[in-house]
């Protein structure tokens, strides 16, 4: 009968993976992870050196095989996930490049009227009202235009403004500016009358995308004309 005490222990097997400090070969980077090759060799060594009088049971062997399969599965999953993450970030960068030069709508009151351009936007009406009007101020805060809209039902109203006329929900308003507004930055103020009191309504206005930054976490940050850096999650609509 062979001497069981003279056989190698599992710790001796793992020690074989350590780097000899006196070796002339290029040292390998040590890791605390137990790879599938080391796991398999450890299991085989354990089986070879088991006590003949008390051999490993079938259930224990099956359990170790299951653990080995789990290690393989986790390594494959990690490799697949890294590949997916890299592909996702590449796709994000490709999408980001297509946004430059486009117009998006964000919640706010500021927008820029470009030459031969149009400012589009949405007015949110929380409740039916008998009177809605829009005030347009230039970059110096001077009232440049006052547009009577009239009554409105609860919901969103979409408009398009070119500095001289305005279209509301696809219909041209019976209004035109006495003097067409020149290209530049403008602030929009929409007021409604509720129970005899005036209140300001929320608006979303168009803004041009000057550039896009893709962060290390994969998030897109848009550099919008008139607003600066803004997370893409705050975009209400891509025009």
Calculate the terminal CA-CA distance, rounded to whole Å. 84 Å
In the CATH classification, which architecture of the largest domain applies?
Sandwich
What string gives the helices and strands in order? HHHEEEEEEEEEEEEEE
Under CATH, the topology of the largest domain is which?
Immunoglobulin-like
Give start-end ranges of low-pLDDT stretches. Answer: 1-11, 16-24
Count of domain modules: 2
Average the pLDDT over all residues and give the rounded result.
Answer: 78
How many beta-strand elements?
14
Over all CA atoms, what is the radius of gyration?
35 Å
Shape by Cα distribution: elongated
Helicity, in percent? 25-40%
CATH class descriptor of the largest domain = Mainly Beta
The major beta sheet can be summarized as: 9 strands, antiparallel
**Beta-strand residue fraction:** 35-45%
Please state the structural category.
alpha+beta
Protein name: Basal-body rod modification protein FlgD
Organism: Cellvibrio zantedeschiae
Domain FlgD Tudor-like: 91-236
Domain FlgD/Vpr Ig-like: 117-193
């Amino acid at each position: 009968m062979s001497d069981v005490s003279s056989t190698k222990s599992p710790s001796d097997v793992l020690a074989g993976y350590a780097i000899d400090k006196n070796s002339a070969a290029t040292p390998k980077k040590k890791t605390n992870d137990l790879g599938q090759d080391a796991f398999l060799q450890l299991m085989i060594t354990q089986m070879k050196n088991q006590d003949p009088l008390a051999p490993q049971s079938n259930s224990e062997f099956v359990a170790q095989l299951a653990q080995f399969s789990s290690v393989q599965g986790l390594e494959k999953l990690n490799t697949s996930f890294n590949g997916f993450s890299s592909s996702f970030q590449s796709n994000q960068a490709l999408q980001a490049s297509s946004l430059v030069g486009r117009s998006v709508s964000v919640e706010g009151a500021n927008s820029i009227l470009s030459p031969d351009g149009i400012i589009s936007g949405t007015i949110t009406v929380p409740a039916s009202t008998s009177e809605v009007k829009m005030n347009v101020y230039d970059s110096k805060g001077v009232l440049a235009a006052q547009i009577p809209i009239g009554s409105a039902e609860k919901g969103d109203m979409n408009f398009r403004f070119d500095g001289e006329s305005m279209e509301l929900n696809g219909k041209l308003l019976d209004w035109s500016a006495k003097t067409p507004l020149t290209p530049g930055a403008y602030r929009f103020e929409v007021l409604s009358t509720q129970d005899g009191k005036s209140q300001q309504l929320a608006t979303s206005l168009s803004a041009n995308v000057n550039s896009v930054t893709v962060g290390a976490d994969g998030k897109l940050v848009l550099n919008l004309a008139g607003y600066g850096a803004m997370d893409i999650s705050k975009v209400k609509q891509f025009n």
